């Protein structure tokens, strides 16, 4: 089995460049800290920010979408329903899917998200 980087560093770089010059850029540090609380909380943070700062919410959402793409490349289908911030039932259903996500795949996804956000922090420090 060959090692594959899945272009995590490039994905992180592109995310940071997209938000360079905005107040959202510092969210990378918060993202890195939030990983330890699990996929559900990481995914849900976009909704907390949606009413107060759309750019920050979009940065979180874009990072989640990037994780979903990376995991799909690795053969792991991370739950990713299209959810409205105002629809409590949709949010609950998606959170339930994440809470019931296969434990082995969850560990892999968290490891990948950890590395992705570590790279985002590194690139943030370079571009500030």
Kindly summarize this structure in a few lines.
This protein is mainly α and about 130 residues long. About 70% of the residues lie in helices and about 0% in strands. It contains 6 helices and no strands.
Q: Could you tell me how far the N terminus lies from the C terminus, measured between alpha carbons in angstroms?
A: 38 Å
Task: Give me the strand/helix succession.
Answer: HHHHHH
Q: How large is the count of helical segments?
A: 6
Number of strands: 0
Described by the principal axes of the CA atoms, the overall outline is: globular
Task: Please summarize the sheet with the most strands.
Answer: none
Description:
The structure is a single chain. The radius of gyration is 14 Å and the shape is globular. It has helices at residues 8-19, 27-34, 39-50, 54-73, 88-99, 103-127. α1 crosses α6 (103-127), α3 (39-50) runs antiparallel to α4 (54-73) and α3 runs antiparallel to α5 (88-99). It has one domain (9-127). With 128 residues, it is mainly alpha-helical. The chain starts with 7 loop residues before the first helix and ends with a helix.
Layout of helices and strands:
Blueprint: H1 8-19, H2 27-34, H3 39-50, H4 54-73, H5 88-99, H6 103-127
Q: What brief labels describe this structure?
A:
single chain; 128 residues; 6 helices; 70% helix; 0% strand; globular
